[in-house]
Amino acid sequence: MKDKNDSIGNPISRKKFLRVCGSAAAGVAVAAASGVLLRRTLATPPRYLWQIDPAKCTFCGRCETSCVLPVSAVKCVHANKVCGYCDLCGGYYRTNAKELNTAAENLRCPTGAIERKFIEDPYFEYTINEHLCNGCGKCAKGCNSFGNGSLYLQVKQELCKCCNECRIANVCPSDAIARVTHDKSYMLKDG
Amino acid sequence: MKKTVAFSTFTLKVCSLLPALLLFVAPVGAQRFPKPDFESGYEYPELRYAMPSEQLWMLVDVALLVALMSLVAWAVVRRRTRTPVVAASIISVAYFGFFRSGCICSVGAIQNVALALADSSYTVPLAALLFFILPIAFTILFGRVFCAGVCPLGAIQELVNVRSYRISKALAAALGVIPWVYLILAVLFAVTRSSFIICRFDPFIGIFRLGGDIGMIVFGALLLVAAVFTGRPFCRFLCPYGALLSLFSRVSVWKAKITPSCISCELCHSACPVDAIRPPYANKVKESRQHGVRRVLRYMALLPLMAGAGAAALYVASDSLSQTNKSVRLYRMVAQSEVAPQDELSPELEAFYGQGGTAQELSLRVESIQADFRRYSAVAGALIGVVIALSLITLSLKRTRKTYEISDAACVSCARCFDYCPKNRVKATESRISP
Q1: Lower Cβ count inside 10 Å, N or C end of chain B?
Q2: What is the pLDDT of residue A161?
Q3: Which chain A positions have a beta carbon within 8 Å of B4's beta carbon?
Q4: How far is the C-alpha of A165 from the C-alpha of B201, rounded, in Å?
Q5: Is A61 helix (H, G, I), strand (E, B) or coil?
Q6: What is the ipTM for the molecules in this complex?
Q7: The pLDDT of residue B253 is above 50
Q8: Res A9: pLDDT
Q9: What are the φ/ψ torsions at residue A78 (nearest 5 degrees)?
Q10: A12 pLDDT exceeds 80?
């Protein structure tokens, strides 16, 4: 028994042998796994950005509160080519508005982010002031309920942190937020 | 003017009855009003949306990752000096931490890779894959150089560390199991597409982003305060990626070594913030090698026992674990509302029925998710059992050491020991003078 032990060598060299085997095994395993995954990754177009599909969005208001940023990266955008330019705008005025003027109690937007400009009788142009918009989606809900749905929510890509797991997508009731390919970084209604 | 107001309030009253109906019939706004034909020559404003140049940033990220890891590897393995490691830490905290807001990160990439390995329909983003693989490749070659100062989570703790109070062996061994359990659970929740818990419970991301979940910011701040007094509490007792890298660094080809001309002054041992340097130790227990091997083999009987117990425990708990999955939660809501219909639907149910979902179709989907959960939970439980059993068995191994030795798994290549080693300093000075 003792002789046999000696012929193998001391425990140090055994340790060394095991280590070399370990390095080789780890190297091969990592190379194989990364090879498989890399091939798959390179074969499909990258989906890195998060975006809201306006066809699925239900304007639940969670975009405003669930984003990891202090003010959500989701903002309302306005498709002018879809808009009816109505005077009585379901996105601009509250449903129970007493009078149709710009007093805050009559307006739907809680931050006053929707600006309106008279164009010609009876048309008004609506514009979103992005710095004020908090992505609550109240106007979008109003516009989609009563109007053409030209107001809708989108993730502003220059603000979005591209979290590995979008906190809003986690709570989105209609699974409207998903990773999109680069060419679909905005899902705009006016083509 | 008066007339318009009267008309419009009427319309609004009618409309106020509609929304509930409309949301079911047409969740997307239809073209209710025609396109206006302007007579004043109005033109539609041109809207521009900033397109991010993610490709470019990814390139910068990966290039910097490789550059910093190479720098640290050179400093630790070749030069045996600490200054470049500190420089790398500062760059990493500034760039990967504050500038890039802590995303992308290798620790979180575990989940993407695990999900991709389990589910072939999912593809890992290239950046996540590279951030997962490259540090492992460097670890196999040079030890945990990524942990040293390239990972912003490790770097921020490294930079605030002042004292290295030692944690008792028993406590360190018990806490050392947590990263493995965290890793196993993170993979479990990732492969079942439930939640990325590593990203969710990242303690430092709130600090990097200067805002976020207040609970996590407080936790991160507490960890940083602890990191002042003891080295890297997050890396040692929480980080799942550190656990993974410790596995690879056991077999790494080159790595930080004790100065060959060691004079056993113990300075490196007391300087090591993560307690990775083991002092010489004479094993007092007289036990023949054969006897020792037999004893450890007997303990190994514990392995299948613990694995079985863990598997059984998590299998039983799999139903409650599956509640983290969005579809499973939705199914519970749907089932509740089918039994006792509510007047006001929650946004989830509204969206579910709005998209024409049926309870049957959902229940099929949820059943397959729960089956996945049962299967993967059993595996996860078995692995947790193995981890606990192995760490218990390791405690019973007492090896005689003649010199100071670096524990390869624990060493994070922070290079503090080099600064404290008197022999290393002499050598460094000589090499600086001689050329």
Answers
A1: C
A2: 87
A3: 87, 100
A4: 12
A5: coil
A6: 0.86
A7: yes
A8: 52
A9: -125, 125
A10: no
Q: Which two tokens stand for residue B319?
A: 């139903």
Q: Do B351 and A60 count as a contact with CB atoms less than 8 A apart? A: yes
- Separation of alpha carbons B252 and B81, rounded Å: 20
Round to whole Å and give the CA distance between A138 and A143. Answer: 9
Domain ranges of chain B: 56-257+407-433, 289-395
Tokens linked to B69: 């890891």
- Asked whether the beta carbons of residue B250 and residue A146 sit closer than 8 angstroms, the reply is no
Nearest alpha-carbon partner for A166 in A150, A151, A158, A177: A177
B4 band by pLDDT with thresholds 50, 70 and 90: very low
**Chain B residues with beta carbon closer than 8 angstroms to that of A30:** 133, 136-137, 140, 248
Q: At what angle do helices B83-92 and B152-160 cross, to 10 degrees?
A: 120
Crossing angle, helix B54-73 and helix B126-142, to 10 degrees? Answer: 10
Instruction: Give how far A16 is from chain B: nearest CA, Å.
Output: 9
Closest CA to B217 of A68, A122, A94: A68
Distance from CA of B230 to the nearest CA of A (A): 30
| Residue-wise pLDDT tens digits, B341-351 | 888 888 889 88
**Interface contact A186, partner B, CB < 8 A:** yes
Whole-number Å distance between alpha carbons of B382 and B38? 71
Q: Tell me, what's the pLDDT at B38?
A: 85
Q: Which residues numbered 140-179 in A keep a CB inside 8 Å of some CB on B?
A: 141, 143-150, 154, 156-158, 161-165, 170, 173-175
Closest CA in chain B for residue A21: B251
Chain A residues within an 8 Å CB radius of B47: 77-78, 80
Q: What are phi and psi of A51, to 5 degrees?
A: -150, 155
* Mean residue pLDDT across chain A: 88
C-alpha span between A74 and A63 (Å, rounded) = 6
Contacts of B59 (CB under 8 A, 6+ apart): none
Three-class secondary structure of residue A173 per DSSP: coil
Strand A177-181 and strand A47-52: the pairing is antiparallel
Structure tokens at A26: 């780890």
pTM: 0.88
Boundaries of every domain in chain A: 2-43, 47-184
Residue A35 has a pLDDT of 92
| Model pLDDT, residue A1 | 42
Confidence of residue B51 (pLDDT cuts 50, 70, 90): confident
Give B177→chain A minimum CA distance, Å. 22
